[in-house]
Amino acid sequence: MKFFYGVLPWKWTLLLSVFVLILVDIFSFYGLYTNKFYLFKIDNFIVPVLSIVHFVFLYVLWFKIREKELSDPPMRNLEYSLYIIGIIYAFKFFDTLIILLTYSEYENYLMPDTFIPLGLGILFLYLLLLLLTIITIAKRKQLVGTYHFDDMNQHVDNWGE
Questions:
Q1: Host H or E run for residue 36
Q2: Does the residue 142 lie in any domain?
Q3: How confident is the model over 54-105, as pLDDT tens digits?
Q4: For 22, 52, 96, 118, which has the most beta carbons within 10 A of its beta carbon?
Q5: Is residue 74 part of a domain?
Q6: Is 160 part of a structural domain of the chain?
Q7: Nearest CA-CA partner of 121 in 24, 8, 9, 21
Q8: Crossing angle, helix 73-101 and helix 115-143, to 10 degrees?
Q9: Handedness of CA 88, 20, 35, 109 (dihedral sign)
């Protein structure tokens, strides 16, 4: 993990996270088997809706680092919800992996030429998103500080007052 601290500064981590999140949101509407985008399936909106929380966390982290503020309860709640969203990212990673592994089962069917390249690309994006999420949380601990449960009410900033 210390390798990533030196390679990725916090600004690059945040920018790369935003870029990967946008790509993952776009590809969540893509069907690997059919090579089409499905905009009217409710299941395809799960990742883009949950990524809103991820975007808000990235913005709050950027603001806290830039203004040199301490962590607060709303940021802690965003991070805890990001842990759950990370589990969903991991599920989507393994779901895409299983889809890619079923390629040999459907060899007799007409598969699009983009199945393997785009499938591997989406798989890489989910893996990169998981790694960037872990790195972002580690950067938060390093640059903003840990959450102190004993004196949590001393540092309350309600983001508007």
A1: strand 36-37
A2: yes
A3: 999 999 999 988 888 888 888 888 999 999 999 999 999 999 999 999 887 7
A4: 96
A5: yes
A6: no
A7: 24
A8: 160
A9: negative
The pTM score is 0.84
End-to-end CA distance of the chain: 37
Q: How confident is the model at residue 142 (pLDDT cuts 50, 70, 90)?
A: confident
pLDDT per residue as tens digits for the range 2-26: 666 667 888 899 999 999 999 999 9
Tokens of 123: 């798989």
Domain holding 13, by residue range, is 2-146
Q: Say how far residue 147 (Cα) sits from the centre of its chain.
A: 21
Q: Cite the DSSP H helix spans in the chain.
A: 2-7, 10-27, 46-67, 73-101, 115-143
Q: What pLDDT, on the 0 to 100 scale, is given for residue 156?
A: 55
Amino acid at 25: D
Provide the number of structural domains found in the chain. 1
What gap in Å lies between CA 120 and CA 128, rounded to an integer? 12
**Burial of 48 (C-beta count, 10 Å sphere; 0-12/13-18/19+):** middle
Say if 151 falls within a structural domain: no
